[in-house]
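The record is passed on directly below:
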Amino acid sequence: MYISTRGNFSEVSASKAIKLGMVPTGGLFVPKKIPIFSTEEIVDMQGKTYQEIARWIISLFLNDFSAEEIRDCVHKAYNLNNFDLPEIAPLHSMGSDTYFLELWHGPTAAFKDIALQIMPYFLSLAMKKLDVNKEIVILVATSGDTGKAALEGFKNVPGIKIIVFYPYDGVSRVQELQMTTTDGSNTYVVAVRGNFDDCQNSVKEIFGDEAFNKILNEAGYELSSANSINWGRLLPQIVYYFWSYLQLLKQKKISQDEKINFVVPTGNFGNILAGWYAKKMGLPIHKLICASNENKVLTDFFRSGSYNRKRQFRQTSSPSMDILISSNLERFLFEITGHDSEKINRWMEDLNKTGQFEVDKVTKKYMDEIIDSDFAGEEETLSVIRDIYHDAGYLLDTHTAVGYKVYQKFLERTGNTSKTVITATASPFKFGRSVFEAIRGKSFLEGKCEFEILQELSRLNNVPVHAGLLDLDKKPELHHIISEKNEIRSQVEKILGI
């Protein structure tokens, strides 16, 4: 069963939590209980395929889904039609202690594919189980990657419409074209004159607007979400933490019970939260290292205990992390305070009213035990890409480069040499302009369009351009709506004809 982080909603089944997306009265759904494994149970999964581990983890959280239904979802999502390698998420070694977990081998070249290839099957099953006879409208706010991954996962799914909002001029040209060239009879894409937080806040307000939801229901629609505020999006991400640990165990890179670190470049705190759930379930994790770019609201929070979104918003070369309000932090705080919804309500109200909140000393102490945090500036990010390419012939995207730089700082500061997995969240081709600039210099960009740069990168590294990015410039752009940030609700009304 699933409960609200704010204690303001009755507990619901997994199906209902996935269908609703977020708590209608405000807050996020979390599992009432977290399953815990013994070391022996984890070790016994050594040698299993990604699909087998996915079935194992997912079944523990979706109690109203049968084993056969979960097997079917996993089979349809994780296969060679959707991912270009049978491992789904391979590990790339950078020496004896450091590994990149490549999460970008899905159809849109970003880690969001891991969750958004399976989530549509979860939602379709949930609708059947709950006997939903209305059309589901999925509202998505994206900082770049979630949008295309969600569009790709949900396009042409019967009974569902999907509307994606992204910051105009706030994503890479490749990211934008991935979204605006999406076909499908049920897909809608809206560029918003604002940043990701403007998109996310508007979507959350729509979910919490009871009067508007009543209008939608009368018109035959119900809302859901494909952002990581939806538990059905977050759950599949827990799998790859277990997968990568078990791969290291299988390859005899670590011994039984040996604790490892994970470095996670994150903005909305969903990816790293999945790692925290894995640790809570018994996975031997020493530290979760939270990596931020120059929008370092999370770094400052974990260091001081004070969350303050009142700061200059920066557009960076790692746009998927250009976020000042990290929604999944609410889940994390609820969990580590022992499900103290009074504290969560107070902190979230402070954040909403004043733009900041501060946690108590006990909460801060727990955060310090499990989370380490740092950030990388723009020059540092490009420098890492250049150094790794020249030293190892390996290409990093800008977000993964942020993660690697933060890991270097962690090593210098702590001297901790535990084996470390860095989550590589996107293909380097997805942010080709920045990657090419880092390797060859700004002057080499002159006169080259985004797609010429992709071909140059391919030649430089003798690696083909990711299939999901090929010929985007030759596809027709099918979505042209540009909206002011205060018009998002009216755009939903126009699209739905209400």
Observations:
- The mean pLDDT is 96.
- The chain is about 45% helix and 15% strand.
- The CA atoms of residues 101 and 423 lie 5 Å apart.
- The longest strand covers residues 160-167.
